[in-house]
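1st attempt posting a full record on here, be nice pls
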Amino acid sequence: MKNTWIRLLALVLALACFVGVIAACGGDDTTAPASSESTSPEASAPTTSKDETENPTPTEFVDYVSQLTLDETSSSPKAKVTVKTFVDGDTTHFNIDKSVMGDGVLKARYAAINTPESTGDVEPFGKKAANFTKEILSKAAEILVESENPTWEHDSTGYRYMSWVWYKQTKDGPWRNLNLEILQNGLALASNTAGSRYGDICMKALNQAKQHKLVLYSGEKDPDFYYGDAREMTLKVLRTSVEALVGQKVAFEGVVTKDNSNTVYVEEYDPETDMYYGMTVYYGYNLSGEGLSILKVGNRVRIVGTVQFYEAGGTYQVSGLTYRAMKPNDPGNIQKVDDEHHDPAFRETDAKTFAEGKVDVTFETTDEEGNVTETTTTYDYAALAMSTSLSMKGLKVVSVYTTTNEDSSSQGAMTLTCEKDGVTVDVRTVVLFQDGKLVTEDAFKGKTIDVRGIVDYFNGSYQIKVFSMNDITVTD
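the predicted structure (as tokens):
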């Protein structure tokens, strides 16, 4: 019996050794997981996930801006400037000595960077980038602009200059490069940095911003951007692209300047073209209470609605406005932007500019590699000023047409045909009353007037529409 147990034990040990040999020679690893105590090189090497490879642990943050110094003795063109107009994150208009620029203005497009849009199709973080530039330059003790090119040369638009913008925080402090600082803070993409004057350090700052996941590279949403189903844009884009936008849902901001017949007029200033752009907004009978209060004249608002062609007037408008009081932050709602009162611009315009003026408008597009392409289109001044508030002085009323259709709500409304500087301008009134009495053509015919109104379009021509006797002043 003892020998039998010895033989059985020997057999068990032999089988165990056989199984171990088979496993060591490469058995099926789906059924035999590798030991956690393996000492093979592959097993002992630290593992790195795909995310860790593409997004390594951030290193200590480097202020590359403090490492870049301005050589004031170099041959590159430079000039001390002051801010004339803030446009957006990567464009600023500066006052400059007329010996450098004949008109005393340098329109600087920041070299090597491209910030999100805030003056065209509005993009996430566009306003943040614009505010960053404005805040820094507003507090700057001194500002200097350096040309990207060997001489002061226009960019492809023919009126802007690719520039490096330097500033001092204090009078005795060092120069800091704003282009680089915008990149370093994650507020821009790099654009055409190869061969650029400071391109190498710009790429270092950009890569660091990505590594630290700053702003554009954070993967987070912009808290100041509405992520609804409407296309966010400025009134400049809407006005210059309105025909192509018919049927689309859009969102834009502006100041309410006039309310008449379930319609408001909304306008917004664009510093790039020094123009006001506007839109007629029909709210109809869909709004009440708080919704209507949002559209009060003087309010700065965010409008969300659909672009339509108004057949009866031959003009474009935005309609389909909604306000859900139970969800005031719904991105589909109209919104009141701030609590301030904003007066209509009533931009003073001469008759010749209104009738014959032209305006160049430039827009940028950026491809996937960050390269910027600019396109410039020329428009009639009045077409761009459509639906904005405007004033004009010294118009001589040469004839008056009065609507006499008894079935029309416009019975008694007048069209004043005026002349100034050799051009003709039409002024269209609603039915006007003064001291409770109907105002007739005798009040204006043959006289000279100053007017304030809204740019309108009728029967193939642009005109100024006046809504109150308070907006017409007879001067002789």
